[in-house]
Amino acid sequence: MRNVSFERETSRKTSTRIADVSVVIPAYNATAFLAETLASVFAQTLPPAEIIVVDDGSTDDTANVARNLGVTVISRANGGISAARNSGVRAARSEYVALLDADDLWMPEKLEVQVAALAAAAVPSFSFTDFHTFDSRSVRAPRSELRAHPAFRRTVGRAPSGANVVVSASESRPVLPDMYFVPSSAVIRRADVLAAGGFDESLRGCEDTEFFLRLFKLVPAIAVMRPLLRYRRHETQNTASPKRVMTYEFALIDRILHDPGRYPDADARYYRGKGALIHHRIGVCEARLGHFDEALASFETSFRKRRTLRTFFAIVAARSARNVVGRSCFVALRALRRALRS
Questions:
Q1: How many alpha carbons lie under 13 Å from residue 105 in its C-beta half-sphere?
Q2: What pTM was estimated for this model as a whole?
Q3: What number does CATH give the domain 242-341?
């Protein structure tokens, strides 16, 4: 059974002119994007009660850009995005906190739609929205990134465009097998952020996944199936390095295995098995580079964690490729595979 139920999207306008929302924007050397990001907040049809920019030890003019635009600025020594978010949440005075990274953009109706959805929810919840991605060179037509994400489809199924979808943890399947939404789309009760323990400041990657897993343990989410966020991709993001992402995923898995009771039960079980998959992926990467000893070690580690035929045959192939004949066959098979794909 899927972790989801559907609600009809409310068209009721909120009766208040100011949303009881504090926008928290962690910023590190964000001069190039911050003014545009803040302009998207100023353009909200339902403006927030306050906007907090947390300057995380920037060496550029980030703090002055924010001050000149009239928002609250908290300056702190550099401690990473999790520490900056936590500082902003602690300083916030509203019932809700809306997260926004310093390079992303909101659509004008974002807060109005989410505040209405949360007000209409049957139980206390948090909310995230569909989103589009863009970069300075992108010419691709916008698409629904939520519906395109395999993990979201596995969790929710076919979510209608424009619907509000209630997503919750269950005993039968993981609610967040991968990070399928963007923190910049999230609106959360400040009390729930604090009850969940805030963002883990010791993690340098996958901190979003780890926090929202703990949040799902406490409350469900309302996924607003409208693209109310424009998510900027650029080369300086952690997501640009697959090898780095794998390192972060191992840290996330270690954290979950160390204290599984803090996370939804099905997710804790899922991430226990995901370590084997990551080791297998590393083995594949090493084999492609011709590092067959390292590939074999990764495949054997994966097999010890989870015995599958795919990994067994990968071990056999890696052992064969360590000798000259086997390596020649491996190279020939790769060349044939590339030729068949072209």
A1: 15
A2: 0.80
A3: 1.25.40
